# Entry
Amino acid sequence: MAEQKGVNPFAIAQQQFDEAAELLGLEPAMRAFLRVPMRELHVTLPVRMDDGRVKVFQGFRVQYNDARGPTKGGIRFHPEETIDTVRALAAWMTWKCSVVDIPLGGGKGGVICNPKNMSATELERLSRAYVEAVGRILGPEKDVPAPDVYTTPQIMAWMMDEYSKLAGHNAFGVITGKPLALGGSAGRGDATARGGWYTVREAANELGLDLAKATVAVQGYGNAGSFAAILGKELFGCRVVAVTDTQGGVMNQDGLDPKAILEHKKRTGSVAGTPGTQPISNEEILELPVDILWPSAIENVITGANAGRVKAKVVAEAANGPTTPDADAILYKNGIHVIPDFLCNAGGVTVSYFEMVQNFNHFYWTEKQVHEMLDKKMTDAYHAVLAASRRHKVHMRLAAYAVAVQRVAEAVKLRGWV
Ligand code: GLU
# Structure
């Protein structure tokens, strides 16, 4: 599922921002300031592997904008990571925190590595090396990482522990997505997909779509994708007809059992070959005639080349950056309702924010309380974006940008930076 060659995610993020800046009539200095990161750190990480040799990894942390609060955003461990991907993701985190109106800025981190070929002990040493190298710019009041593609609660635990050693005291609030036993929040595990479903529920109401009769396809079966499938069935009684991961995919028109597929993936490493299913590819799944399509894997999968063949009524972007700007124009023209990434997948960072608040206060909420607060944040954000889309007569992504960029620009202005 490699991203389309030649498409630079940061160029896309800037192009999207430029359109929003134009729509909002932002002054030139504000545009110049908001279209690039405020800070970034590049680090080189020598890590001892299990065979005794040292391997050298490259890592990044980008703090895109902290006008509204400490920067926030995950760390990806990915073999094809690039600084421009991290910059784009950091920009999207800025707009994401703003669109759900939580008091945080945006950041992102990445390490070029292939965690699938690394042992647990190698991953632990890499995680600790990363924090040793970027720790000086992290902190509960400065920059707070979280999980992202191929990073897990266990990795967050190692990173929190390493930072706490550097700080000389427990600093649970330095990172989110931690295990429950170490200051994690109830409800963080499925928060990205759950928050996304709250926005889909609102969209379905607007479109007159009955979710109990709706069909669903999910590309990507990591944290966001697997919970998108599981919760679609559990919360709304949707029929999940197809899911894929990097190795392949499975389909059954009568409906799949998302939990059985997850078990199969845990056992074999892939959803492919789950008993009682037919195979389907990552390209085919995007073109299925389903009600709700969840691109939940990686950037640039819906492009000018295939957007015309997307038949879903709603595209719920659990992944960051799955749709290119030329594809956006086609989907909009074809009347497909896109719930854009930084709105649709903001549930993860919203519960991360709740996790930070709980860590600061040493007081923990129940899962039910977290779900209710998440629902309110997502529902309010969806309707703010829908209203902007109707007011400006633009697609949902540009509307989401308008809402988010406006708030960040206001904070920058009030602080007197520009
Ligand atoms: N990595 C997730 C995202 O892209 C979560 C970030 C966070 O919780 O800080 O939204």
The mean pLDDT is 97.
